[in-house]
């Protein structure tokens, strides 16, 4: 595990618990299904409410374990699915650090103790608690919500009438932890789809594939977008719409905006440090017009335009892995790029979850020697994550993180 610390300042806060949905108040709301980027944005906006944040992830295999955002001074732990990077579990593990209420009524505060009687009074009846002998605790489950009661007593498994039927030598048990999740089982829960409240009038990436011409050469990308539908529907229905768009090499900037909408940002290139590797004899000639990027952060996509012709020359797809220099700038782009490599024209598919060694097994020696890429910002010359390696084959430049061999980004060119 790798742990990164962010230092901010805070005071105790109050949270409204909504089973299968969220934890929040008038100022902020953490929703199940929320992208990790939006959760981090909330923490930044409320830097006087939150204290320490520890971001934990598995550096050698970032898809093997959940990404955890631990609000250590508030007793809250946010668990994100490592593949879709959406919020899967909201865990409150220190109830002394946060006030909690349900339907506007406190069940945990300085004056109200979250005992088993208080929980049943606030949330109503449910199935009998489940005893976990390994951890010496009882678990009281509601749909989308679980309460954990510690017990140091050696109790018989005779709790069919609920926790209230049991006798505890140290008084009634008090909740030590609660979890908010989707469904009936905490162990089997999955991150739900992006909730409508998190769309924020933006579009997101469902899938990216390559577009090829009649000769089989790469001509551009096909991107499936989803966003909030403008058509009327019932309140209970998810207002989600899908649309496919093609963006081809040579397309003008107004055509791109018509297909994908306005970019989140436009970035003008000061210099091109990779042009030294170009085969063009004119690579050292200075350009009068600066090339520029359309940055679509929620799509995980950058599009490079030629400064003179204002047409598309490259696409860059980002994977947003923790431990990469660009983490939390982009959302993950879910791509499946199929190419024919070698003399035998063997099929190679590079996806958002590919590892370079698996790609290398298919393409053999049909790739260039790696170029070392060491990113640094203008304000901070240090890069705590170290350099990455860029491999070129066919129409792709694949950026690989050496710590785990996962593909960090893919650049597509004609």
Short précis:
With 414 residues, the protein is mostly beta strands. It is 8% helix and 36% strand. The protein has four helices and 27 strands.
Per-chain topology:
Layout: E1 2-7, E2 13-18, E3 22-24, E4 29-31, H1 36-45, E5 52-57, E6 67-71, E7 76-80, E8 87-92, E9 98-102, E10 105-108, H2 116-123, E11 130-132, E12 137-142, E13 145-150, E14 177-180, E15 204-212, E16 218-228, E17 240-248, H3 253-260, E18 265-268, E19 292-296, E20 301-305, E21 312-318, E22 336-341, E23 346-351, H4 356-363, E24 371-373, E25 388-393, E26 396-400, E27 407-412
Strand count, sense and barrel status of the largest sheet are: 9 strands, antiparallel
Helix content: under 10%
Oligomer: single chain
As residue ranges, the low-confidence spans are: 5-11
How many distinct beta strands? 27
Distance between the termini: 39 Å
Strand content: 35-45%
Helix and strand composition category: mainly beta
| Average predicted local confidence, pLDDT | 86
Rg computed from alpha carbons, rounded to a whole number of angstroms: 25 Å
Total DSSP helices: 4
Largest sheet strand order: 1-5-6-7-8-14-13-12-11
The rough form would be described as elongated
What would you note in describing this structure?
8% of the residues lie in helices and 36% in strands. The chain has four helices and 27 strands. The chain has helices spanning 36-45, 116-123, 253-260, 356-363; strands at residues 2-7, 13-18, 22-24, 29-31, 52-57, 67-71, 76-80, 87-92, 98-102, 105-108, 130-132, 137-142, 145-150, 177-180, 204-212, 218-228, 240-248, 265-268, 292-296, 301-305, 312-318, 336-341, 346-351, 371-373, 388-393, 396-400, 407-412. Strand 7 and strand 8 form a beta hairpin. 31% of the residues are buried.
């Amino acid at each position: 595990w790798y742990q990164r610390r962010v230092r901010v300042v805070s005071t105790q806060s109050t949270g409204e618990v909504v089973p299968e949905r969220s934890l929040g108040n008038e100022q902020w709301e953490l929703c199940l299904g929320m992208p990790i980027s939006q959760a981090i944005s909330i923490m930044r906006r409320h830097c006087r409410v939150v204290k320490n944040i520890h971001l934990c992830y598995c550096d050698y295999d970032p898809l093997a374990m959940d990404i955890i955002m631990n609000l250590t001074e508030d007793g809250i732990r946010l668990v994100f699915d490592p593949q879709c990077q959406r919020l899967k579990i909201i865990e409150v593990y220190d109830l002394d650090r946060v006030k909690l209420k349900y339907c506007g009524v406190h069940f945990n505060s300085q004056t109200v103790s979250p005992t088993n009687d208080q929980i049943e009074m606030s949330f109503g009846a449910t199935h009998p608690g489940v005893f976990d002998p390994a951890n010496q605790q009882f678990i009281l489950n509601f749909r989308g919500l679980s309460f954990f009661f510690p017990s140091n007593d050696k109790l018989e498994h005779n709790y069919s009438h609920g926790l209230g039927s049991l006798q505890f030598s140290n008084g009634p048990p008090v909740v030590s932890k609660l979890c908010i999740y989707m469904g009936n089982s905490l162990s089997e829960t999955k991150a739900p789809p992006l909730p409508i409240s998190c769309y924020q009038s933006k579009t997101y990436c469902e899938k990216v594939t390559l577009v090829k011409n009649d000769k089989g050469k790469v001509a551009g990308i096909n991107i499936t977008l989803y966003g909030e539908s403008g058509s009327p529907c019932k309140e209970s229905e998810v207002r989600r719409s899908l649309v496919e768009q093609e963006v081809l090499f040579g397309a003008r900037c107004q055509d791109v905006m018509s297909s994908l909408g306005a970019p989140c940002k436009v970035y003008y290139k000061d210099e091109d440090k990779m042009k030294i590797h170009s085969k063009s004899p004119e690579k050292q000639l200075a350009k009068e017009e600066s090339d520029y990027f359309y940055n679509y952060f929620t799509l995980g996509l950058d599009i490079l335009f030629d400064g003179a012709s204002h047409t598309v020359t490259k696409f860059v797809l980002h994977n947003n892995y923790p431990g990469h220099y660009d983490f939390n700038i982009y959302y993950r782009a879910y791509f499946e790029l199929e190419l024919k490599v070698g003399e035998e024209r063997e099929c190679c598919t590079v996806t958002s979850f590919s590892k370079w060694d698996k790609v290398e097994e298919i393409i053999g020696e049909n790739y260039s020697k790696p170029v070392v890429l060491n990113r640094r910002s203008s304000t901070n010359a240090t890069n705590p994550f170290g350099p990455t390696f860029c491999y070129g084959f066919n129409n792709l430049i694949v950026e690989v993180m050496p710590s785990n061999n996962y593909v960090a980004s893919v650049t597509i060119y004609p």
